[in-house]
Backbone:
């Protein structure tokens, strides 16, 4: 299931319904991303951030997230996948993204969850504007994120 939304979500409620009744599931792995209160683009990480605005292209974003989910399902024996990504203005501490993968075995759930968030970070069409005390800053792609995603490109 994929949802791109402005509204907040409750991770507990989402996971309570995730894979409910599917007794083939032996493990669920999830990742929850939050808005930090410091500037991710700052080399020292010390510039305070009050909020972040996430933009996306409706339709294109969902299509790309579906392609990422399909790749995860091709690589691992997954029973369920959940991707929730928010857009709009988010305050420090707000939830941005929830990714969950369910499989019969924990290793597939862990690897698929890691793959999903790495590819979401580098391949999903979201743009982030951090609102810092010294002004607004667009978040640029990070080499470390690209390197994390590259390891999955090498695995087939």
Residues:
């Amino acid at each position: 299931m994929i949802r791109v939304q402005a509204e907040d979500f409750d991770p507990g409620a989402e996971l309570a319904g995730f894979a409910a009744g599917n007794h083939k599931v032996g493990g669920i792995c999830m990742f929850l991303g939050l808005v930090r209160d410091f500037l991710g683009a700052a080399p020292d990480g010390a510039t305070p951030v009050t909020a972040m605005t996430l933009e996306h292209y409706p339709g294109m974003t969902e299509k790309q997230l579906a392609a990422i989910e399909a790749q995860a399902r091709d690589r691992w024996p997954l029973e369920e996948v959940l991707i929730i990504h928010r857009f709009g203005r988010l305050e420090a501490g707000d939830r941005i993204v929830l990714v969950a993968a369910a499989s019969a075995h924990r290793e597939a759930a862990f690897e698929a969850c890691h793959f999903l968030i790495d590819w979401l970070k580098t391949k999903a069409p979201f743009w982030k504007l951090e609102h810092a005390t010294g002004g607004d800053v667009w978040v640029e792609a990070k080499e470390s994120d690209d390197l994390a995603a590259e390891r999955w490109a090498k695995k087939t």
